[in-house]
Amino acid sequence: MGYRWTSMTDVDEAVVVVMNSLDEDGAIPGWLSKTINQSIKDSDAEYGRYFFEQVRQHAPAALKYFAE
User: Fold this and answer.
1) Are 47 and 10 in contact (CB under 8 A)?
2) Secondary structure (H, E, C), 21-59
3) Cβ(33)–Cβ(40) below 8 Å
4) Segments making up each domain of the chain, as ranges
5) How many Å apart are CA 59 and CA 23, to the nearest integer?
6) Are 45 and 53 in contact (CB under 8 A)?
7) Cβ(59)–Cβ(19) under 8 Å?
8) Averaged pLDDT for residues 48-65
């Protein structure tokens, strides 16, 4: 179940979780991918755009797990 991002800090925290998952496992678990994809859908578009900007910058290998 996703949650609605209401600030850039919410998005930043999600990006840190993505980065940590890649560092630990080399992949994004299915539950995390589903949760973040739902958050992207449920949140204002500006937060979705910001999420993708941050992932491109900090964890580009994770882009394949998320729908743009």
Assistant:
1) yes
2) HHHHHCCCCHHHHHHHHHHHHHCCHHHHHHHHHHHHHHC
3) no
4) 8-65
5) 10
6) no
7) yes
8) 97
Provide mean pLDDT across the span 22-47. Answer: 96
> How far lies 4's CA from each of 7, 26, 36, 48, in Å?
9, 26, 10, 10
Tokens found for residue 44: 């204002």
Look at residues 28, 37, 29 and name the one whose alpha carbon lies nearest to residue 67: 37
pTM above 0.85, yes or no: yes
> Does position 2 have pLDDT exceeding 90, yes or no?
no
Alpha-carbon distance 64 to 43, whole Å? 20
Residue 1 pLDDT level (bands cut at 50, 70, 90): low
